[in-house]
């Protein structure tokens, strides 16, 4: 995390690693010899942990959440392949709603939010009052840029708990 409360560099490096992992198993995900369940297991075991590594401390913006969803939909489109229209007999890409119906597991953003809330529970139970408060509500040093203040990790936890 930088002194402007930004973790964009960490998220960019996670996306780079996730893309490298995705391209290394790309042929397996599009193979006709493997079942769709096996391809989904490969995605959840190989690619997803690389992308969401250390995600408990991330304070995501809407742009980063959208990038996570785009990455996941790209991988799922490779797994499920195109769909053939019955009326026109033409092939087309699956829509996002169709991908969400086919992929029953929670998406990347929900996984990150659940891990973040679980980590918040661990931090809450930690010993040492000063360290806990510094970790939860810590303010970075330096001058704040113009505009609305960035959401902190603690603000994200409060929003996640309100949604739950």
Task: Provide the fold topology.
Blueprint: H1 8-24, H2 26-29, H3 36-51, H4 62-80, E1 83-84, E2 91-92, H5 96-102, H6 108-125, H7 129-137, H8 153-163
Antiparallel strand pairs: 1-2
Give an account of the 3D structure:
- This protein is mostly helical and 164 residues long.
- The chain has one domain.
- The chain has eight helices and two strands, in the order H-H-H-H-E-E-H-H-H-H.
- The chain has helices spanning 8-24, 26-29, 36-51, 62-80, 96-102, 108-125, 129-137, 153-163, and strands at 83-84, 91-92.
- The chain has a two-stranded antiparallel sheet with strand order 1-2.
- The model has no long low-confidence stretch (mean pLDDT 83).
Briefly, what is this?
The protein is an all-alpha fold and 164 residues long. The chain has eight helices and two strands, in the order ααααββαααα. α1 runs antiparallel to α3 and α3 runs antiparallel to α4.
Low-confidence stretches: none
The residue-averaged pLDDT reads: 83
Order of helices and strands: HHHHEEHHHH
Strand content: under 5%
Q: What's the overall geometry? A: elongated
Helix coverage percent: 55-70%
State the end-to-end CA separation: 27 Å
How many helices? The count is 8
Main β sheet profile:
2 strands, antiparallel
| Count of DSSP strands | 2
Radius of gyration equals 19 Å
* Strand order in space, largest sheet: 1-2
Q: What is the number of independent domains?
A: 1
Structural class: mainly alpha
């Amino acid at each position: 995390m930088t002194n402007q409360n930004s973790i964009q560099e960490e998220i960019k490096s996670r996306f780079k690693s996730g893309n490298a992992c995705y391209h290394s198993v790309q042929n397996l995900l599009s193979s006709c010899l493997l079942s769709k369940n096996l391809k989904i297991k490969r995605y959840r075991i190989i690619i997803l942990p690389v992308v969401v590594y250390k995600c408990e401390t991330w304070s995501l913006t809407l742009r980063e959440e959208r990038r996570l969803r785009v990455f996941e939909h790209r991988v799922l489109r490779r797994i499920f392949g195109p769909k053939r229209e019955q009326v026109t007999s033409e092939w087309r890409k699956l829509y996002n709603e169709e991908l969400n119906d086919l992929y029953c597991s929670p998406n990347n953003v929900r996984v990150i939010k659940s891990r973040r809330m679980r980590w918040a529970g661990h931090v809450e139970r930690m010993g040492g009052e000063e360290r806990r408060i510094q970790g939860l509500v810590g303010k970075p040093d330096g001058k704040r840029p113009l505009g609305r203040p960035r959401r902190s990790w603690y603000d994200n936890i409060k929003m996640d708990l309100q949604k739950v």
